[in-house]
Amino acid sequence: MAFTGTGKIWINGELVEWADARIHIASHVIHYGSAVFEGARCYDTPKGSACFRLDAHMRRLMDSAKIYRMDPAYTKAQLETAVLDTIRANQMKACYIRPIVYRGYAALGVNPFPCPIDVAIMLWEWGTYLGDNALESGVDVKVSSWTRMAPDTFPSLAKSSANYANAALIKMEAIVDGYAEGIALDSLGYVSEGSGQNIFVVRDGVLYTPPMAASILPGITRDSVITLARGLGYRVHEEMIPREMLYIADELFFAGTAVEITPIRSVDRIVVGTGKRGPVASAVQQAFFGIISGELPDTHRWLTYVYEGKAAGAAKA
Predict the structure, then answer these.
(1) Which residues are catalytic?
(2) What's the pLDDT score for residue 1?
(3) pLDDT tens for residues 299-309?
(4) Are 210 and 218 in contact (CB under 8 A)?
(5) pLDDT, tens digit, 9 for 90 and up, residues 126-138
(6) What is the pLDDT of residue 129?
(7) What are the backbone dihedrals phi and psi of residue 54, each rounded to the nearest 5 degrees, phi first?
(8) Whole-prediction pTM value?
(9) Could you tell me the CA-to-CA distances from 3 to 39, 104, 125, 188 in Å, in that order?
């Protein structure tokens, strides 16, 4: 989705104009992908704008930074506050949230230690990731020829910019071949995840999802789906999933901040189930969107209200 290029971006503790948020071409991150980041959402609810699981997202950001030996000059709590301050400064009701921790300008070389650790937070409006009808009608996907990283190559538990070079290859191949998305296998040939989303398989009313050992990113939405599904009475198993399970599943769906909960209607031109959104995906969607819309109680305390106790009348849609 194209940027509007307006508003303010938080960089190292200061709010700057969008056009002034620049880094030097010799910054380490540009040459070596030395950054970790997050993707979160703020929703417009009847009770006001609310960030979904902001604490969990910022914890994962700090975990990713720790794995890559990056020490931001801010605590998790300070970054959560910075996110809220940035949303308020931009007077937004709903938005996509992108905090990033990256190695900046000082020296170039594989050794990143001489470079400073910079932090930025940007926001933009982002609708349905895989198309306007994807949440209801589902999407067509393929099993990618690109696999996810082996466990001794890149740390999959870190949401690292470098890891997304692999994701981009998966996504581009899918688009060129006429699909909305790709599903990657792990280095052993088991189902891993999409280019930027986790996957759930439904068979005989039971949900299956790959474990963290399958080179997946431990998704916040994935964790939410597991919690909601179990609350609805479904059994959920985290286990290795062979590729052919994708073809004989009753239902498949993606889960992620960008895709939210999106059904999959076919894999490699093989129709999944009836080719329509199934009852399990529908039930999980209803529970998920019920919470973020404010129609259902937030019993898990997943929502952080942005303008609570603050004026929000000028917030932009």
Answers:
(1) 159
(2) 59
(3) 999 999 999 76
(4) no
(5) 876 676 688 989 9
(6) 66
(7) -60, -40
(8) 0.94
(9) 16, 23, 8, 38
* Token code pair at residue 49: 């704008």
**What pLDDT is recorded for position 308?**
76
Closest CA to 276 of 180, 174, 132, 139: 139
Q: If DSSP states are collapsed to H, E and C, what string results for the chain?
A: CCCCCCCEEEECCEEEEHHHCCCCCCCHHHHHCCEEECCEEEEEECCEEEEECHHHHHHHHHHHHHHCCCCCCCCHHHHHHHHHHHHHHCCECCEEEEEEEEECCCCCCCCCCCCCEEEEEEEECCCCCCCCCHHHHCEEEEECCCCCCCCCCCCCCCCECCCHHHHHHHHHHHHHCCCCEEEEECCCCEEEEECCCEEEEEECCEEEECCHHHCCCCCHHHHHHHHHHHHCCCCEEECCCECCHHHHCCEEEEEECCCEEEEEEEECCEECCCCCCCHHHHHHHHHHHHHHCCCCCCCCCCEEECCCCCCCCCCEC
Which domains are present in the chain? 8-126+300-305 (3.30.470.10), 134-277 (3.20.10.10)
> 10 Å Cβ neighbour count for 239?
11
- CA 185 to chain CA centroid, nearest Å: 19
